[in-house]
Amino acid sequence: MKKVNPLTKFRFLIILFVVIFLIQAAYVVFFINSNHNIKEIQKDRIITLQVLFVFLELMLGIFVYFYLGKILKYVFNPLTNIFKELEIGKLQISLPYQFEEEPLKELASPLENMLSNLRQFNLEKKNKIKEYKDRLNLIIKNVNAAVLIINEEFRIVYVNEIAKKLLGIISDEDYPSLMDFHFEGEVLKYFKETLSKKVLIPPRKVYFPKIKRHITFNNGIVHDTEGTFKGMVFTITKIDLEELEGKSKQNKNPDKE
Questions:
Q1: Staple 146 to which of 81, 125, 212, 236, CB 3.0 to 4.6 Å?
Q2: How many CB atoms sit inside 10 A of residue 140's CB?
Q3: Which whole number is the average pLDDT over 18-27?
């Protein structure tokens, strides 16, 4: 069974009270008219007052019935604004003065506690993320492989030093575009193809003129917590940087051989 909205219940009570007032006014008018001990001038005054009260009660009932939602929205607007700020991730919020008065006064303490808990949770989450990031950076830094992460917008979100030297990725920009670099041979084509397919593909050997041999690309998919595709991790293993730098120098100075 569907539950009735509290606002609907309140409006029903308003209608009920208005009906009761109308019945009461009708009874008074009937009683006055049927009582012969009351003078006509007194009857007119009493009936006039009853009509005036009924009119005012009807106007008040209609106003409250149709504007109750807007009145409540205005009263709770400060609370709504706080939740809107929370929605966009803003946690450093000060409660406005409306929370010092009724009806929001009782919500002030629980809301302050909630904001304090959220700030603490957010701080702990950031510290945990930093801890995992530092640990991952340490692992990648000490591994003898080129590693780079490219997101779904074809932007490089992470690249280690080996990958920078091997692929010639030099940029001061945060998240530079993949298209900003002139990769050798089939490298760019491989990146674009793999990212476009958004699926894990088998390791592929690509000829790399810089070191005059084939290098093997491995890939992995990056998902968010909801399983949505966010990018790919690319690794190139068994890279000898000394060999790479030596051949690079030989290519620049062929006459010295």
A1: 236
A2: 19
A3: 82
